[in-house]
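Board notes (copied after class):
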Amino acid sequence: MTRNTYPIDASTPAVVLKFDPNVMHHGGLGVIRSLGRMGVPVYGVHEGPWAPAARSRYLTGRFLWRPDPADADRVLAGLRRLADRIGQRSVLLTTDDAGAIFLAEYGRDLRRWFLFPDPPADLPRRLAGKYSLHELCREFGIPSPRTVAPDSLRAAREFASAAGYPLIAKLTTPWAKGSGLLSTSVVASQQELDHAYETCVRSGDGLMLQEFIPGGPATTGSSTGIATTIRFAGRPLPASRNGLIRPPPD
């Protein structure tokens, strides 16, 4: 098989920025390897020298830093210092929802040092939020499963009675989760539903429930179209990419 090749302008560095505390996050490593192999100077922001992505041979430079998007001023100051060390304007690539949201809402003053997309300021947050994405789908007439963001345990149970078990439970803002729950999981009983709801109440996380639409044996998906891993009966299961997309009525 013949692979088409095109000239690559590798003169502009790239900075890979990650807010997600998951040290095994693979997205950033993929960016580092793909661009580094083409000769692009790649700089990474890492939790520490032991992070797998920080050990990549394709990195030009490593910045050991744990940016907190809740402290916007400090993150902006840190990125400016990083730009000064690189010495030229760079492409800034975020690899998680928190990063995309941060740049859309606070990145205006960084454009002197970095190149990155310029979507409407509220759009990344609306797309990343599980319930706000559902509302966006309804706004544009895109099919989506029956969904509720219950404001009480009673409302959660009423939805479960109408939709039937199992249900899909999601954190409405998974980039800011503090409950310890998985961002997406399958709820198979009222006991599991009560536990998920009460855990979110204690942590302050928002909970969203969706009807379960099977996409194949032991699979489910996400209305965002992004594959994920869920737990059913205590065991991790692979998820399909389109198992939750409800077709329009005939």
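Comment from the instructor: Residues 220-250 have pLDDT under 50 and may be disordered. The helical segments are 27-37, 72-86, 97-106, 123-128, 130-139, 153-163, 190-203.
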